[in-house]
Amino acid sequence: CNALSSSPSWFCFFSAKDMKHRLGFLLQKSDSCDYSSSQSKKEKISSSQRLSQEEVRKWADSLENLIHHDRGLAAFRAFLKSEYSEENIEFWVSCEEYKKTKSPAKLSPKARKIYDEFISVQATKEVNLDSCTREKTSHNMLEPTLSCFDEAQRKIFTLMEKDSYRRFLKSPYYLDLVSPPGAGCGPENCKRNHTHTLDCNSNIISQCA
Fold it and tell me: For the RGS domain, which residue ranges apply (predicted)?
């Protein structure tokens, strides 16, 4: 205001106040645009992650289809957890990840970790293997290779396929996902006490009480 000494003091005050008002308006507009942009991105992500009925129905074709689909694997894992048998799918997943190991130097420590967690006598999450398979896998620990858990993994896969997978297809964890879109929770459409669906982070959440 000193530079404009010829201007009345009230003019300087009005200009500063006017500029402050304009700046506040622009900031509000910017925040609004950022919020709209954020909401739009969330909607696009949500849309891209929605499960189609066709995808879910394919899970009933085979256990292979189910556990090789990220959302299917999450649903099956949640079901097994409800039955206190999630160690089976955790072992299978660990074996899949182990077979992707590229560094030979990492094979032994990774193999030992899986063995100690799922197969050894003192395993914290011991899986149900016959003595022959367990003994063979133990022998494989002497010189671990990418295929050292293959037989044990096949046995656990077969166990899940013949047992828990069949129960999963009859459970709300699957039935509520494969039901027609728009089927509400009225008496005709919601005979079960709870429904389960998958959120964007592949977690099971309860929807209908």
Answer: 62-178
Sign of the dihedral defined by the CA atoms of residues 9, 15, 17, 20, in that order: negative
Main-chain dihedrals φ then ψ at residue 54, nearest 5 degrees: -65, -40
Domain ranges, ordered by start, for the chain: 53-178
Size (the chain), residues: 209
pTM for the full model? 0.65
φ/ψ of residue 154, rounded to 5:
-65, -40
The pLDDT tens digits for 167-207 are 999 999 999 998 755 555 444 444 444 444 454 344 444 34
CATH code 1.10.167.10 for 53-178: yes
Give me 144's structure tokens. 């671990």
Residues 175 and 191: beta-carbon distance below 8 Å? no
Q: Which residues of 110-144 are buried (b: 16+ CB within 10 A; e: fewer)?
A: ebeebbebbbbeeeeeebebeeebbeebeebbeeb
